[in-house]
Design brief:
The chain is of the alpha/beta class and about 350 residues long. The protein folds into two domains: about 110 residues, Aspartate Aminotransferase, domain 1 (Alpha-Beta Complex), CATH 3.90.1150; about 220 residues, Aspartate Aminotransferase, domain 2 (3-Layer(aba) Sandwich). The strands form four sheets. It has a seven-stranded mixed beta sheet with strand order 2-10-9-8-7-3-4, with helices on both faces. A four-stranded antiparallel beta sheet has the order 11-12-15-14. Strand 11 and strand 12 form a beta hairpin. The chain is globular.
Length: about 350
């Protein structure tokens, strides 16, 4: 039997669902494999969950698909895209594939926290030539949300702008702050969300975008039909119908996250950063060696530096590890392996 690896490297909420919720996902009596799926019921459920009209919802094959089709529809080859970095590595990959011109604006580290580059972002938008601004709130891999002041400044910049403001809220349920209240007044605002993180459905590849109906229609025209399969639709509907139960389990992850940060902070030489996601970024001496040592012990964590191509962002992520909050039953094993990787036994 293949040894189970502890999956702390891909931001999967691998222990969020309890047995009852897992069973609810497993039962798929409505799947009709001989027909194409219909997304009307799922759109309605997502609209109710988000508090918008169904015509403002676009169902996508994960949030990655939403990112790609937004980039193709609104930037295309040579289009300028403002990107505060580091951010979700998929942006750099997708924008490179589309041929867009990335304008990177690096975060800063200040007093043990990551600071959103508000002034640099606004400066990059000032001349109106940018086709898109992509924001990740809270940020992956940093774990940091925008401050209330940053959020208000971004909203003000969006008013009357021709730039498309895209906010990736993949982790918003772990934090609670959203741009959604501004959707009705900003026709150039798009909010991307996913069921991969806060609903623990990464394997179903169900994402969605919230936007003005005209934006949803434009994106829908270039997307392939039926990209989300019947079982994924059924799983999404099952958990959306049990959103309160999922939220209760999410609170357990949030509580464990906050305790996990405290645990890491107590280890000499380790700097964990505040997180409002389901993972923690920590600065760790000789991070690549620690990552490899943990892997040999059956634990996967992600090295921060390779997540970006831009030098300033690479420097910010130097010697960092991104670690998903371990399940309570996995935590003692992680603690022991992490300590052993930090302080290897010296050979005589």
């Amino acid at each position: 039997m293949t040894k189970r690896m502890m999956p702390l490297d891909r931001n999967e909420s691998y222990w969020l669902l309890d047995e009852a919720l897992e069973e609810a996902v497993r039962v798929c009596g409505v799947c009709e494999y001989s027909t194409y799926p219909d997304y009307g019921e799922l759109k309605d459920a997502l609209a109710r969950y988000a508090g918008v009209a169904p015509e403002q919802v676009l169902v996508t094959a994960g949030s990655d698909a939403a990112i790609e089709f937004i980039a193709r529809a609104y930037a295309g080859p040579g289009g300028r895209v403002v990107l505060p970095v580091p951010t979700f590595y998929g942006y750099e990959t997708i924008l490179g594939r589309v041929g867009a011109e990335i304008v990177p604006v690096p975060y800063e580290e200040r007093d043990g926290r990551f600071v959103f580059p508000l002034a640099g972002t606004l400066a990059a938008l000032a001349d109106g030539s940018a086709k898109i601004l992509f924001l990740c709130h809270p940020n992956n891999p940093l774990g940091a949300p925008l401050s209330d002041g940053d959020l208000r400044a971004i909203v003000e910049a969006a008013r009357g702008s021709e730039t498309l403001f895209v906010v990736d809220e993949a982790y918003f349920e772990f934090h609670g702050t959203t741009f959604l209240p501004y959707l009705a007044e900003l026709p150039n605002l798009v909010i991307i969300r996913t069921l991969s993180k806060s609903f623990a459905l990464a394997g179903t590849r169900v994402g969605y975008a919230l936007a003005a109906p005209s934006v949803v229609e434009r994106l829908g025209r270039i997307m392939p039909p039926w990209s989300v399969a019947h079982p994924s639709v059924a799983a999404a509907l099952s958990l959306l119908a049990r959103a309160d139960a999922v939220a209760a389990r999410r609170e357990a992850v949030i509580s464990a996250r906050d305790n996990f940060v405290k645990d890491l902070r107590a280890i000499p030489g380790i700097t964990p950063y505040p997180s409002r996601t389901n993972f923690v970024l920590a600065r760790v001496p000789d991070a690549a060696r620690v990552r490899d040592t943990l892997f040999a012990a059956g634990i996967k964590v992600a090295l921060g530096e390779p997540m970006t191509q831009f030098p300033a962002a690479k420097a910010l992520l130097s010697d960092t590890l991104r670690i998903v909050v371990p399940a309570p039953e996995d935590l003692p094993v992680f603690r022991q392996a992490f300590a052993a990787s930090l302080y290897p036994v010296q050979q005589a």
